[in-house]
Amino acid sequence: MFEKYILLCLASLRMHTFHVIYEVANFLVLHHAAMKYYPARQRLTLPLQPGKSGKPVVLNAKASLSEYCEKGSGSLTVVFKDLGPQVYYSTLFFWEYLGPLIIYPMFYYLPVYKYFGYEGERVIHPVQTYAMYYWCFHYFKRIMETFFVHRFSHATSPLSNVFRNCAYYWTFGAYIAYYCNHPLYTPVSELQMKIGFGFGILCQIANFYCHILLRNLRSPSGSGGYQIPRGFLFNIVTCANYTTEIYQWLGFNIATQTVAGYVFLVVAASIMTNWALGKHRRLKKLFDGKDGRPKYPRRWVILPPFL
Ligand SMILES: NC(=O)c1ccc[n+]([C@@H]2O[C@H](COP(=O)([O-])OP(=O)(O)OC[C@H]3O[C@@H](n4cnc5c(N)ncnc54)[C@H](OP(=O)(O)O)[C@@H]3O)[C@@H](O)[C@H]2O)c1
């Protein structure tokens, strides 16, 4: 049986048969009766020194084996971890966005409220129609961006993330759709609706432009690592794509005004803030101004003028 954590001593193997870490990963697939442990499923790290804590060094698949070899010994010990079944990032994003794209119009078009005990004729307000188009445009845009705009650095993600992320997006989609399309829904004033949707659409366009700027930081193969994002709102804020994402949901909520929509806004904003703090920290560390590396410019993290 292949255990979850396995210590492999490659000292006994002829080092010259391997040149890069990726070849070691392939070797593990072929020689351990474990075809299911394809390279994307493997995490190879250097062993932690006895008595030391912290995160182990993850081996770069494209790096040369000699970079990690123990000095003078010509041998290398690596720790294998099975990351579990993997899916492409595009597959993960597709399934998580498809749910809200289908669920929301179901509440708009189908007589679902009959099953919740509302027998009367349902009057659909213009704001409910615009909200449905706005919502569908947003998730359709995200799916298109997934396939045609983003250049991901990691090819795959654990399969379990599909279930976790779908639960998040599909549940919130149903929760918001239920209240926005409800027969007892009370619309806001026409002016408020126009301000909300107008502002939201502008933010969606800005969000799309931010994604184009991020895309241009990498080559089509996704290589190029992390660069300093520049231009447009990135000159002010590190995660301008999250800033515009949060504001476009604010626009939707100004126009539709439901508790469910604001709950989603708060949850999504806190998740993105957490990620933005990590991305800001990573860029500051990568671009520290030492040894010829550029210094990361002074910027807000996600929501100027607060953070
Ligand atoms: N409503 C919500 O709950 C919610 C939550 C999250 C996201 N979103 C939306 O989905 C969009 C995508 O989310 P995400 O978390 O994937 O965004 P992200 O990590 O900021 O980046 C989008 C793409 O740009 C790349 N990238 C980011 N910073 C880079 C840099 N400094 N240098 C080079 N490439 C860089 C990323 O590469 P990597 O593959 O290396 O990360 C990824 O491929 C967001 O912008 C937002 O509009 C919504």
UniProtKB/TrEMBL annotation:
GO terms for biological process: very long-chain fatty acid biosynthetic process. It comes from the Eukaryota. The keyword Chloroplast does not apply. Pfam families: Steroid_dh (PF02544). One of its GO terms (molecular function) is oxidoreductase activity, acting on the CH-CH group of donors. It is a multi-pass membrane protein. The chain crosses the membrane at residues 87-110, 195-214, 259-277. It is found in: Membrane. Belongs to the steroid 5-alpha reductase family. This is 3-oxo-5-alpha-steroid 4-dehydrogenase C-terminal domain-containing protein. It comes from Oryza meyeriana var. granulata.
